[in-house]
Give the backbone structure.
Amino acid sequence: MAHAAPRSRVRGRGRPGTERTGTPDVFSERTHRMARIAVPVALGLVYGYWAAANVRYGGPITGGNVLFGFLTALVFIVLFLAVQAVAPRLKREVHAALWGAFTAASIGFLVSTTGFSVLWSMWLGLAPGAGLGALLFYRYHSREDAAGRRRP
């Protein structure tokens, strides 16, 4: 009978003395800290540009249009950071639902800037939001125990 090779022990996310099994983390703690801010800012700028382009309807770029884009980006960034800070403290079901609701609202707002009806915006936002919520619900249920601690 052949024996499987033992799993390598990998240090866990910069906490001294913690070890976990699995693949190694190739990025440093500093990179993770920077990404927690850089990713929402980058997504917010793309989101703001997209919303401003939708409102512009192919017309000329105006000061009001640029202002709308930057304000939209700012609101998106602030809400993303708030969800990112609050969601991990919640139960896994609510955690997944919060990210799903944020996604649904974000996409619904973008669709509403194109001139479609509110009901159409709601349905187009609800579909990916519900999909992401279900996906995260499965992920959190399969990788955490009932107390919310990650399984090795």
Confidence is low (pLDDT under 50) at residues 5-12.
